[in-house]
Amino acid sequence: MLTHLDEKNRPKMVDVSPKNETLRVATASGVIKMSDEAFRAIKENSAKKGPVLQTAVVAAIMGAKKTSELIPMCHPLLISSVDTDIIELPEIFAFKLIVTVKIKGQTGVEMEALTGVSVGLLTIYDMVKAIDKSMVIDEITLLKKSGGKSGEYMRA
C-alpha cells in the first residue's frame, strides 16, 4: 500500500506519531547559470531590484519554512535552523546555493532543504530576469541527510 493513500485510495498525510523524535538534518543544493552580464550585476550589487544574493538567502529560509504550504503531503515542522551558503562559479557564470535544514522531530527535512534551494534560485532568476531571461536553474539535488529510521544518506 502506498503511504499517502488510505485503504479507500484517498490521499492522506502519513501519521508520524509512532516515530521517535530524532535529530534530522538535510542538505540540498542547486545551480543557476546565466550570462556574464547578469553574473556581473549580481557580483557588483548593481541589479535594479536590490541585493540579489542576500534576498535569495532570505527567500531560501522562507521557502524551507513554508514547505508544508507548498507540497501537499509535507508536515508543518518546527524547524530548528536553516543554514545557507552561496558559492560563485565564475568560470560558468553561475551561483550554487546550498541549504541545510535541521530539526529535532519525527519526520525528515529533505523536502524543506530542496524547497529552500528551489525558492532561493527562483528568487535570483526573478531579480535579474530583466538582464537575462535565458538563465537555467539546474542540478537541484539532495546532497545528504541524517536521522530517522532510514539513517544516513550521502550523494556519491
SSE topology sketch:
Layout: E1 22-33, H1 36-43, H2 52-65, H3 67-70, E2 81-89, E3 94-105, H4 110-128, E4 136-146, E5 153-154
Antiparallel strand pairs: 1-3, 1-4, 2-3, 4-5
Helix pairs in contact: 2-4
Radius of gyration, CA atoms, in whole angstroms: 17 Å
Query: Which geometry do the CA atoms define?
Result: elongated
Count of alpha and pi helical runs? 4
Mean pLDDT: 95
Category by helix and strand content:
alpha+beta
Low-confidence stretches: none
Strand content: 25-35%
Number of self-contained structural domains: 1
CATH topology: Alpha-Beta Plaits
CATH homology superfamily = Molybdopterin cofactor biosynthesis C (MoaC) domain
Q: Please summarize the sheet with the most strands.
A: 5 strands, antiparallel
Please write the CATH class name.
Answer: Alpha Beta
What is the topology, as strand order, of the major beta sheet? 2-3-1-4-5
Just name the CATH architecture: 2-Layer Sandwich
What letter string, H or E per element, gives the SSE order?
EHHHEEHEE
Task: Describe the protein in words.
The protein has helices at residues 36-43, 52-65, 67-70, 110-128; strands spanning 22-33, 81-89, 94-105, 136-146, 153-154. The protein has 156 residues and is of the alpha+beta class. The chain has a single domain, classed as 2-Layer Sandwich (Alpha-Beta Plaits), CATH 3.30.70.640. A five-stranded antiparallel β-sheet has the order 2-3-1-4-5, covered by helices on one side. Helix 2 (52-65) runs antiparallel to helix 4 (110-128). The mean pLDDT is 95. Pfam families: MoaC. The active site is at residue 126. This is Cyclic pyranopterin monophosphate synthase. Its EC number is 4.6.1.17. It catalyses: (8S)-3',8-cyclo-7,8-dihydroguanosine 5'-triphosphate = cyclic pyranopterin phosphate + diphosphate.
